[in-house]
Amino acid sequence: MLVSRRRIARRVQALAGEIAASYRGRELVMVPLLTGSMIFLADLMRCLPLKMRVDVLAVSSYAGKITRNRQPRILYPEKLHVTGKHVLIVDDILDSGQTLAAVRAILRRQRAASVRACVLLRKHTALCLGMHADFIGFDIPDEFVVGYGMDYNHFYRNLPEIAVLHPSVIVTGPHGGNSHSRIAPS
User: What is the set of domains in the chain, with CATH numbers?
Assistant: First the structure.
């Protein structure tokens, strides 16, 4: 296990405090990037004492059994209602930064008043490349992680903690034996 459910809960509460202080007195449009940020978004929203709206954006950066980030594709919708609004992008993980950069560009073209980003995880690669998020939950090593909404080949989103995906799962697939015991090396 890389990050326990207790540590996640404490950090989400702290992030909500940081976000609330930054947006005090303003209406917020939260734009979660589906599907990996669903659980993070739900927990974060429950901690925020702000007037907010949620407009989801489906973006694909990983497909099926791929464990390397590829060029992001916006799946839907083509247009969000953000003109003149303060927008907070909510994402599960900052890796190469390509997805976040693409979404920021879209929101700026749609004339959002401000565009900021909150990510649960920032990989070491993103840190080294100078990729920016305004609110960051945890810095993690360059490993493929699952749980707390993040998946591998559509599995493991339901895990309550964040774990490193064991290489044998990638090779044999998520159905080979008791996969939950093989998520992270012991």
Answer: 5-140 (3.40.50.2020)
